[in-house]
């Protein structure tokens, strides 16, 4: 069997140089790279992956902690992350977790060696963030961020909440309800903050319902809103997932969208634009996938040993479709 020693001998270089060409060719002179590649081709040498990992101390594996699959946002971002990572030669270990399962999920990703960690389930005051920093493993969060304001990719969530509420007011809605997620999460906290800012004195406690984002809890939230003496004319879902569940629950109760109640989402997931759904929502201005942005940054950190802190907040805009009725 042909070995790297044979390649080194034919190319007139050391075995260490052969390893560098295979793993970090950008750090080797172009003439040397060409000599080694010609020797590899001539000898039909196939590098042993495990041997390469021993030399580089790399696993070519990335751990992804994603939010639950019932939220289409995480379906979209997981697909983008896995596809991009695979194209760069990395495997992705994926866990889909609810917030109440975080401790177990954190333990699992620390059980094995990985080259990097990407997660979308960090809580705003999560102590695990400091543990990540001490591990000396590249990591990044997306969609959510930690209170330390480090290593994250997000949309401008406060502005998203503001635009959602303002857009409804602009077409005549005065009785606007809000169904959100737990405020221990930066995404939901900031979207709620933005919506309150736009609503101002028009906000009413009876139209606010914070959910754990499960179908059961959202169903209870819709029942709560429909028990009010004055029904809301519009409901903001703090994510497209919440908004889509709200629509489903309203339709089950024979309430028409948007004729009886308008519904607004936030995220602009791929499903929102489907012809049979056409959800009016707020999302990334250029429709870039946050997962793709985050995994691109993470692999840059891994491969170039980039230690700079990533802070990316993307601009947002309204995607005006068919679930909002104009009242004026």
UniProtKB/TrEMBL annotation:
Residues 2-56 form the HTH lacI-type domain. InterPro entries: HTH_LacI, LacI/GalR-like_sensor, Lambda_DNA-bd_dom_sf, Peripla_BP_I. Keywords: DNA-binding, Transcription, Transcription regulation. It holds the Pfam family LacI. GO terms for molecular function: DNA-binding transcription factor activity; transcription cis-regulatory region binding. This is LacI family DNA-binding transcriptional regulator. The lineage of its organism: Bacteria, Bacillati, Bacillota, Bacilli, Bacillales.
């Amino acid at each position: 069997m042909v070995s790297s020693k044979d390649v080194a001998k034919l190319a007139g270089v050391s075995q260490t140089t052969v390893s560098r060409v295979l793993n970090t060719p950008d750090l080797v002179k172009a003439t040397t790279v060409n000599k080694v590649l010609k020797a590899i081709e001539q000898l039909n040498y196939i590098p042993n992956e495990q041997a390469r990992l021993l030399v580089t101390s790399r696993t070519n594996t990335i751990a992804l902690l994603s939010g639950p699959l019932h939220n289409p946002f995480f379906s979209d971002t997981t697909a983008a992350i896995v596809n991009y990572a695979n194209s760069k030669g990395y495997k992705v270990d994926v866990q889909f977790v609810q917030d109440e399962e975080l401790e177990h999920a954190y333990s699992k990703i620390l059980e094995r060696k990985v080259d990097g960690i990407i997660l979308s389930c960090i809580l705003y005051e999560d102590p695990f963030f400091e543990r990540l920093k001490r591990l000396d493993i590249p990591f990044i969060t997306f969609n959510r961020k930690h209170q330390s304001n480090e290593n994250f990719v997000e949309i401008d969530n406060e502005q998203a909440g503001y635009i959602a509420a303002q857009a409804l007011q602009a077409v005549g809605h005065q009785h606007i309800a809000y169904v959100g997620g737990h405020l221990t999460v930066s995404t939901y906290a900031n979207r709620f903050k933005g919506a309150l800012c736009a609503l101002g004195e028009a906000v009413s406690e009876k139209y606010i319902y914070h959910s754990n984002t499960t179908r059961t809890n959202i169903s209870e939230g819709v029942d709560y809103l429909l028990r009010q003496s004055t029904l809301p004319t519009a409901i903001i879902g703090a994510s497209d997932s919440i908004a889509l569940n709200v629509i489903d629950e309203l339709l089950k109760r024979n309430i028409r969208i948007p004729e009886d109640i308008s519904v607004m989402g936030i995220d602009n997931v791929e499903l929102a634009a489907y012809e049979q759904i056409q959800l009016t929502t707020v999302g990334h201005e250029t429709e870039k996938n946050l997962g793709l942005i985050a995994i691109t940054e993470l692999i840059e950190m891994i491969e170039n040993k980039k230690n700079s802190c990533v802070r990316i907040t993307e601009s947002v805009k309204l995607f005006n479709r068919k679930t909002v009725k104009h009242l004026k």
